[in-house]
């Protein structure tokens, strides 16, 4: 089964439909809803500026799930966010392609359109292969997809620099299709490092509910990534045991990583970002372990 997008069918992981979501945000001014919604490729939207009191923390790029957007991700990770912000500056990236809302998202976040994705629908890679796939379109379309993802990520980084962020860019935090995009970006960094071509130095990733495969972000360059390549940059993987989006998939992104580099946490839930303290604390323990082992943050 191939999905044209991957998002969060149960929004925030609990029936919180009566909550005033604006009240959950430290800065409600960044959450003004819009009514524009279209399925065409569009210009890159600005990312969401991180908290001022984290200006000098090491920075994590946060990539939202398909069919959502950066504001929605901030709410979805509301339990995890303050824990991460104690040590990191979170910088949210807006995906480059407009899309339909993910299942269940439109019912709660309809006024928060437009919704976005990391791949256009026609560019979905085949999830049946636990390696590195190209897109289903032509090489020219492939290059445009990669360029659009790079542009979105670069814009977020540049915007946060202008906002006063000074910390090193040390990691990526992705959910669902955003986790797939983050891991694919890191695979290219890993392979480029072998030839001295890498321009980023991300140390680790937190990848939640991530589908396989990795997709090839070296399209259009002289450098080739093997179809059998595996991500060796340290990563923490989080999966729900009742994930209704991924249960038909033959593989998950965890299968695309080397055994020694990947840590995994499984919890009793659907396709969502954890909210319960017991899960958040367990995930944070793994994140801190990996961050310290990779030198992303100093050992306490």
From TrEMBL:
Tagged with keyword Nucleotide-binding: no
Origin: domain of life: Eukaryota
Gene3D superfamilies: alpha/beta hydrolase
GO biological process: antibiotic biosynthetic process; monocarboxylic acid biosynthetic process; secondary metabolite biosynthetic process
Domain Serine hydrolase: start-end pairs: 57-279
Pfam family, one: FSH1
InterPro entries attached to this UniProt entry: AB_hydrolase_fold (IPR029058), FSH-like_dom (IPR005645), LovG (IPR050593)
Keyword terms of this UniProt record: Hydrolase
GO molecular function, one term: hydrolase activity
A GO CC term assigned to this protein in UniProt: cytoplasm
KW ATP-binding (keyword) present: no
UniProt family annotation: Belongs to the LovG family.
PANTHER family membership: ESTERASE DBAE-RELATED (PTHR48070:SF3), ESTERASE OVCA2 (PTHR48070)
The protein's name: Serine hydrolase domain-containing protein
């Amino acid at each position: 089964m191939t999905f044209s997008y991957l998002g969060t069918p149960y929004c925030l992981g609990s029936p919180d439909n009566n909550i005033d979501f604006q009240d959950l945000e430290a800065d409600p001014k960044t959450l003004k809803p819009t009514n524009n919604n279209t399925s065409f490729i569009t210009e890159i939207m600005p990312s969401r500026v991180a908290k001022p009191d984290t200006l000098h923390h090491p920075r994590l790029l946060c990539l939202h799930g398909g069919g959502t957007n950066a504001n929605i991700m901030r709410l979805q990770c509301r339990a995890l966010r303050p824990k991460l912000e104690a040590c990191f500056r979170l910088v949210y990236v807006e995906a480059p392609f407009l899309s339909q809302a993910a299942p269940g998202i439109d019912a709660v976040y309809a006024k928060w359109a437009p919704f976005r994705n990391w791949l256009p629908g026609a560019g979905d890679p085949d999830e049946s292969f636990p390696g590195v796939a190209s897109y289903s379109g032509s090489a020219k379309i492939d290059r445009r997809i990669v360029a659009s993802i790079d542009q979105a990520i670069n814009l977020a980084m540049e915007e946060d620099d202008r906002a006063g962020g000074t910390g090193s860019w040390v990691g990526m935090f992705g959910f669902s299709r955003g986790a797939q995009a983050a891991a694919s970006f890191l695979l290219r960094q890993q392979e480029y490092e072998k030839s001295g071509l890498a321009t980023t130095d991300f140390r680790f990733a937190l990848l939640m509910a991530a589908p396989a495969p990795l997709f090839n972000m070296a399209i259009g360059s002289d450098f080739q990534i093997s179809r059998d390549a595996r991500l060796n940059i340290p990563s923490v993987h989080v999966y729900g045991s009742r994930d209704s989006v991924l249960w038909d998939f033959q593989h998950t992104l965890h299968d695309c990583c080397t055994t020694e580099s990947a840590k995994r946490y499984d919890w009793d839930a659907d396709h969502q970002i954890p909210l319960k303290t017991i899960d958040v604390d367990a995930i944070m323990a793994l994140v801190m372990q990996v961050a310290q082992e990779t030198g992303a943050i100093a050992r306490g």
